[in-house]
Amino acid sequence: MAEPAVSLLAHPFMRNAYLAGTAIAVLAGLVGYFVVLRSQVFTGDALSHVAFTGALAALAAGIDARLGLFAATIAVGAGMAVIGRNGRADDVVTGTVFAWVLGVGVLMLTLYTTSNSTGNSAAGVNVLFGSIFGLSAGQARFAAVLASVLVLVVLAGARPLLFASVDDAVAAARGVPVRVLGVGFLAVVGATAAEATQAVGALLLLGLLAAPAGAALRLTSRPYRAMWLSAGLAVASMWIGLGLSYAVPRLPPSFSILAVATAVYLAASVGPAVAAVAGRATTAFSRPAPPAPAGAGERQTAPGSRTSSRARRADRPPR
Q1: Which residues contact 157 (CB under 8 A, 6 or more apart)?
Q2: Which one, 64, 76, 197, 241, has the greatest CB density within 10 A?
Q3: Residue 233 CA, distance from chain mean position
Q4: Between 78 and 112, the higher pLDDT residue
């Protein structure tokens, strides 16, 4: 068991992938818990398309794609929270920004492909589907450090954010700055989307945000336990997915990671119901049969009937 793990980590690209992937998964699990709790999964999906547009805009301008990733996702995430009510981007705001950003992305793709005619199509594909095996040591360390800082930010604001997520009216009445928290939270979601894009791509990052958190919320109703369980499931999905892609090179890492995360969510959704049905069936088969009532098996006869008279005569002693 230890030998395959040592062999796997002997490759620099796998060490870089595990270093960046672990930190990104912890961040995505923690942030995803609040995204699902606040019913803002659609907002996370919109930010994934913002990541695509921002990266392509940076590439079209000839600068580092990560700069466009973080600038666009943080700015648009905070902007949607400002437009929305109480710092939450509702469906109308999210849908409008979603469509507009996707249109801008098409424009950036056109500008990028026309200005870079050869040898650059892979950059756009990497933005869409991730390239965690292509991270250099410096890029992996940067991603891990930035994710660690964002994790600390989330943990620092976890208690008031949880209060505002459960009941924002009561939280506002108790003096919690609900609107400021909402704007700051969507800015962090934007930065998380930019981080996760490097691992699983802009199109698939929503799975890393939503699937582990959804599974955790189905497995426990205790808030802090669910928050850390979400982070643990995201890390497990990342580790297992990277291992699968290493063992089977034809499997892209983004597919493997999201496949494991989806399987975990399905198991958490269906597993308790299947276990309950199996438990009831086992109890029914193992339950002892109720004792038979007294006189059961004897022939019952109605008083005054012919059969009853014959029975009384048979019991009468001979003269």
Answers
A1: 181, 184, 185
A2: 197
A3: 8
A4: 78
